[in-house]
Write a structure and sequence with these properties.
- This protein has about 70 residues and is an alpha/beta fold.
- The protein has one domain.
- About 25% of the residues lie in helices and about 15% in strands.
- Strand 1, helix 2 and strand 2 form a beta-alpha-beta unit.
- The radius of gyration is 12 Å and the shape is globular.
- This is HAD family hydrolase.
- Keywords: Hydrolase.
- It comes from Deinococcus taklimakanensis.
Length: about 70
């Protein structure tokens, strides 16, 4: 699966990463199937039963997902 390949190449576990996107199926449901946390950026694709781990107001909100030092 593409998500696990990307994690392997980056050298991180799914628990250490976020997947951000605007497609409920591809960017919320899909990543969650391999243990990634999913942040949803609503841009016109409505959620249809998916439950993102975070919902962003705009792309700048990605910074709020980063751990604080």
């Amino acid at each position: 699966m593409l998500y696990t390949l990307a994690l392997e190449r980056l050298g991180v576990s799914a628990a250490e990463a976020w997947f951000v996107g605007d497609s409920p199926r591809n960017d919320v449901w899909g990543p969650q199937q391999v243990g990634l946390r999913a942040a949803y950026l609503p841009t016109g694709h409505a959620l249809t039963g998916q439950t993102p781990d975070a919902t962003l107001r705009d792309l700048r909100d990605v910074l709020s997902l980063l751990p604080r030092p």
